[in-house]
TrEMBL record, chains A, B:
PROSITE patterns: HTH_LACI_2. This is LacI family DNA-binding transcriptional regulator. One of its GO terms (molecular function) is DNA-binding transcription factor activity. Transmembrane segments: none annotated. Residues 2-58 form the HTH lacI-type domain. The lineage of its organism: Bacteria, Bacillati, Actinomycetota, Actinomycetes, Bifidobacteriales.
DNA sequence: CTGAAAGCGCTAACAT
DNA sequence: ATGTTAGCGCTTTCAG
């Protein structure tokens, strides 16, 4: 391992000078020629800072902890983690992911993260929920991902559920569907409330009236298929907005059994059909992809801005907003999802 | 943060003594009474070692790096990571995961891991492939996960593909299926070869003869559905062994369109139907679950044994082998997958 | 059996 | 503008 000491030795300056240069804290403190030489030798030797050693003095490790209890049980975690890691990496941080599903104890894992000196934390859910920040994270920089804090005390990022449903439903309207159904989720979730409202509002904006009988809220189980089946038989919808991929599947199954072809006889807009699934289905499906990557990305950038106490705008975060693509977009069209970024209500740390 | 210095102060001994005790290196070096007292005070104060500080002297961080390029694009990574993290955590290590899909450069990510002093590495694929170990990992402890090294130089763990297919096919035979099809994968993969062989051998062991026309190797795309559809019409199979969940889906779709009920008219054994998917489908499906968790678990334990240069048996690793459950197991039956653990051909480090 | 002292690689006051 | 010094928390000889 090549150390500052070695560079100091080779360049004939002291370690402190090398330290200044390597941390870009020269600028009027070290003669430019010297600084350049130091940098050159460092490059040549392939010098890399030892984050352990510097953390000992600075109490900063340039690591951020990512905590989620659903890494193993949902296919969406990967995208979020990748987004967070991408931003972290770009900003010179390392993301350390711990999942607390299975037998893992959340507090233990958080302790491990703290022991290793994480500078900040991402606390992630895999579907928008009101969430309490764990007690031991109370006075650390924390950002919630795909979740919203109970008290408005913690910054968060979450999908604009209302707009997802509004856009999806509008799309079905514009595609000429007359009887648009919503296959929702019967568990209480922010996503469900927001989407039902968006569906309803879009219908009304299009001059349709909301029909309760076209709304079926189901769980992910056997009776769900019957419920959707009944909907097919009794209401004969020609368009479906589906809460998620599992719900969309009930529609495919029912359609297949009746000889109906999706894209011809009925239209379906689903949310977040996962890739494995979508590869098979996508030719006949319009999807709203929840921007897990983007949420992770933003959250990581945000927590870095909190750690370094500088405005988020100084960091390079792409804008994830994009307009709804036109209806004649190639199939499978992707309806882009907008995001809601919440600043902490109190000072963001 | 509570330090050794503080404990030393409170107990009236020196830091070195505290160090000995905390590292369980007392035993004939520190008087038992003193040791006990030190431990007591440490507990009371909630002392935690500072891994940064000790790494400075020992060049050990008790972290292991997990590298994969498919974290975001497959739903299976989560289980593997969770397994690895569980074992790591149990053994007092922290798992640091980096994914190299998306725009991430693998070498950069490995460098980051090395900079942070990872003691060993897990290099994971999400489906069994012959794999080269990255150059910069050459002289570090490395274990391959769901992959096999090109030269037998690196320990690895991978599913027993032959037996997966053998067991699945046998199960279909025992369930009374007469015409058992294999919906395979047309890409060259170890998994495909092994499974085709297992399918064939199981048929022959049951006194059936292998019929090429019952084998359909497909990609994950449009033509696949037609190929399976043709198989239904021309060969009228009553049992299906499917390479993975996407392939199984073609069978469901074809069956639904023909009014055939799975579990009554046709039997299906799939591999690795992911949970999101399985929640909807599982009542009618027998699955072979690839033991991603167990692979991750074993691999992490293995790499720790390499790092600490002590035999794997000293560590607490559960045996993941289990017998095939009986055919009258409640549906969905899970066919357990056996694993192949490969030691390095040369000395294991 | 226990403590003093040195040093891991780095940063940050403080001198020059 | 650069070097000296001290010390972060811990491990590890080496003396006693």
């Amino acid at each position: 391992m090549v150390t500052m000491k070695e560079i100091a030795h080779r360049t004939g300056v002291s370690v402190s000078t090398v330290s200044l240069v390597m941390n870009h804290r020269d600028e009027g403190r070290v003669k430019p020629a010297i600084a350049a030489h130091v940098r050159e030798v460092a490059d040549e030797l392939g010098y890399q800072v030892n984050p352990m050693a510097s953390s000992l003095r600075t109490n900063r490790t340039r690591t951020i902890g990512f905590i989620s209890e659903e890494v193993a049980t949902t296919p969406y975690a990967g995208g979020m983690i990748l987004g967070a890691q991408t931003a972290a990496s770009k900003l010179g941080y390392l993301l350390i992911t711990v999942s607390t599903d299975g037998g893992m104890d959340e507090d233990d894992e958080i302790d491990a993260l703290k022991r290793y000196g994480a500078d900040g934390f991402l606390y992630a859910k895999m579907s928008n929920r009101v969430t309490d920040v764990p007690a031991r994270l109370k006075d650390c920089p924390v950002v919630l991902v795909d979740a919203t804090g109970r008290d408005g005390t913690t910054p968060s990022i979450e999908p604009d559920e209302f707009r997802i449903a509004y856009d999806a439903t509008t799309r079905l309207v514009e595609a000429g569907c007359e009887r648009i159904a919503y296959i929702g989720c019967s568990e209480p979730m922010l996503a469900q409330e927001g989407r039902l409202a968006g569906y309803r509002t879009a219908l009304e904006a299009a001059g349709r009236k909301f029909n309760e009988r076209l709304v079926v809220d189901v769980l992910n189980n056997g009776p769900a298929l019957e419920a959707v089946s009944d909907l097919f038989d009794w209401e004969r919808p020609d368009g479906f907005f589906c809460f998620n991929d599992a719900r969309a599947w009930y529609v495919y199954e029912c359609a297949a059994r009746r000889g109906l072809v999706i894209g011809r006889d009925v239209s379906v807009v689903g949310v977040d059909n996962h890739r494995v699934f979508a590869e098979t289905l996508s030719p006949r499906l319009t999807t709203v992809e929840l921007p897990h990557f983007e949420m992770g990305y933003w959250a990581a950038a945000k927590v870095v801005s909190m750690i370094e106490k500088r405005p988020l705008d100084d960091l390079d975060v792409p804008d994830t907003r994009a307009p709804l693509p036109p209806l004649d977009a190639p199939v499978p069209a992707k309806v882009h999802c907008t995001l809601i970024e919440k600043e902490s209500v109190r000072a963001a740390g």
